[in-house]
Amino acid sequence: MTTSADAFLALDFGGTKLSAAVTCRGEQTWRGLERAFSKPGATANDDITTMLGLARKVLSGVRPVAIGVSFGGPVEPKSGTVRLSDHVPGWENQPLADALTDEFGVPARVDNDANVAALGEYRFGAGQGCHSLLYLTVSTGVGGGWILNERVWHGAEGMAGEIGHTVVDPNGPPCFCGKRGCVERYASGPFIAQDAREELDANPARESSLRTVVELTAQHVSRAAAAGDAYACEVLERAGWALGIGIGNAVNLMNPQRVVLGGGVTKAGPIFWNAVRQTAAATARREITLDIVPAQLGDDAPLWGAVALAEEA
Amino acid sequence: MTTSADAFLALDFGGTKLSAAVTCRGEQTWRGLERAFSKPGATANDDITTMLGLARKVLSGVRPVAIGVSFGGPVEPKSGTVRLSDHVPGWENQPLADALTDEFGVPARVDNDANVAALGEYRFGAGQGCHSLLYLTVSTGVGGGWILNERVWHGAEGMAGEIGHTVVDPNGPPCFCGKRGCVERYASGPFIAQDAREELDANPARESSLRTVVELTAQHVSRAAAAGDAYACEVLERAGWALGIGIGNAVNLMNPQRVVLGGGVTKAGPIFWNAVRQTAAATARREITLDIVPAQLGDDAPLWGAVALAEEA
User: Fold this and answer.
1) Which residue does chain A place closest to B179, by CA atoms?
2) How many CA atoms lie within 13 Å of A146's alpha carbon, on the beta-carbon side?
3) What is the pLDDT of residues A291-311, one digit of tens each?
4) Nearest by CB: B159 against A155, A171, A287
5) Cβ neighbours of B165 in A, within 8 Å
């Protein structure tokens, strides 16, 4: 294996999807990119084997100078040890950075996906030039990551960024975490779909094009809202309202320079974005300049963040 | 004037009270401490003149090596320029650090009171040894300051720490800031007293020892609760509940190592503290270790923080 003095290997262990990519210092395109689905019933070792295959393919004989990894679950960032995965068994206390260093003979750094995506948007996307930012991904869950003083802020125990489980209405509907009215309870894709379905079922007189949809998703709600369905608009506006309070509260606490929103739900269009921005503005102190922008890197944010991690390795 | 290589001058411009103190490097007691009330109708220039008098008195002919200042209002911390005071006219854009440097010929640093008190508790009080902490003062208002990576976190525009105006119940009572259900709306001394009075007036059948109090304050509520008054306990528990949600949300977002609570309202006793701790624990993620402790420096926290600022000058 020849070493390239410039090549970075970026790995993304998502819940169900594995991605490996190679880029070179100063470049903003991939030299190689491979993706695979995690096999049904796969264990941590299976995923590592699949990922190593993808990595060898994109490297095609070149040894990288460093490796960066985004992991979909809690990580001890200093050692690069995975704490656990909610999706794949066997990840408990896996020393992932060490295993990759053993395999490739180069330094490796690992962090959780929200932190890595925040770093990606900061270095290569919508957060470039900001000293501080809050990144949110609104998707199956609602996660967050902080960049403060140009570095990821992990918190004392690596748990910072849990905006999804900040409470915006203590009398709101019950969340799976045991509390009521969390941001995630209103704004995640599955909860948007669930609320849309349950309220239609509970109100037979309410008209909506969503009534005929068999397996209702948040994407159906977004599309119906874009087509003018008043009920779908209401559902999306409530999600945006909850996210807006959560962002307004976070901004009052930390006053970051920018807020970057990524994840599938944020593709819901202007009805959603207007609700987020208006509620955040009404919640934040007047003295604070609100700058809420869409993420730029899309699904590649964790991979680009992994490149930034590799640069620091 | 002789210079002492070790003397720090600490100044505290409160809303209505001015304090000046001198200590020496490595000491944790005052060599001299003088306080005066701001004269009724005083302007910024009057307060500066009074403060210079106090400073000369505590210095008694010694020139300090540096000056630190706590100011009760927003400040531009890099330049040490005051933005404004809500209490005293004429403070708009006053270059306070420069004026003190001109007067004493030594470097001066200025920050707002919540940040300076956070720094004081971190260096000399309940936050010693912590890399990160959230300090709250619960008094006439509810203010906050962050220490992250052993430094004050100001935010992009110096507005970080506004936990008092994070929303904990969007359907709650109206706050003077224009929103509903802010932490400060429930937990500040004046609002505790107002709620206690208004609910008694609205419920003539409700029994409470507070009914006979003429000018009801939060301190009366605390004392009645300590004496077993059930209504007073309810009022205090609601304040603690709101503060607990605000702290739980802040802890989910930032995961600081410790939370330090100061200010008059936090002297309300175990009924208040239990409500704060229980609600914060129920709001914070289980993976986060909650460590909520009382401030140690009392009313002197801003002055000790000013010493820490002077050390950095």
Assistant:
1) A283
2) 24
3) 999 999 998 999 999 999 999
4) A287
5) 252, 285
